[in-house]
Amino acid sequence: MENKKFKSKRFMLILVVILSILIPPATYAATGTGSSTTSYDNTYYAEAIGKTGTTLKSTLHNIIDDNTKLSYSAVWNALMDTDEDPNNSNNVILLYTGRSQGKSTKGSGVNNWNREHVWAKSHGDFGTKAGPGTDIHHLRPTDVSVNSTRGNLDFDNGGVADREATLCKYDSDSWEPRDSVKGDVARMLFYMAVRYEGDSGEIDLELNNKVNNGSAPYFGKLSTLLQWNAQDPVDDFERNRNDIIYNKYQHNRNPFIDHPEWARQIWG
Questions:
Q1: Does the keyword Hydrolase apply (predicted)?
Q2: Does a structural domain hold residue 168?
Q3: CA dihedral sign of residues 73, 67, 196, 227
């Protein structure tokens, strides 16, 4: 007959196996309760490993700020590469609707797709000049009419469903993207707030816990973005996008795709 101690050990082993299946390692990294590792930790991120707070933010800025800058016209071709539908090389995936749409349908027509500035370019009034206005780490293909509805709204929860992007919501001062890209949006904004710090003649972009930020170089709502980062872990589409931008276009990475836990370590 098994003794109680042996039964207890066997039960704990079974429990650990079950939990490891139900909760994959990426979840711990995304919630900030654990840490992730990448092949870049001993090279690209070597100076950042082990740091926290403003020191981590400053170190990451110095790592990612010396990137190749694209022209606004070059962004079209870049997005057709970075956001290509993995199941159809003729299409791109639109950020807010999730729709797979032909690359050739880019333009300004109501059913075309265009270049969405996730950090709305009016928040800091940086326009489409090379730099924040053309940084493809935060530029994504979106439906033209959905892009217009989102406008320059800050991000937060709540509102009514969008007529076309039905899984997104909006009200007078905020936009809530569909659940499966909430983390993507958060990590893009984290990147922008670290990449653009006001040096080298560039704008200083910062996150805050407000909406209605208008033309100020601020974006919110930080507490919601941190929740979204935890709620929607990094997926293969994001990782592939990050790799393409790094290897082929800007030659810098979004640290919060590689290490989503760094958002909590910087902004708490």
A1: yes
A2: yes
A3: positive
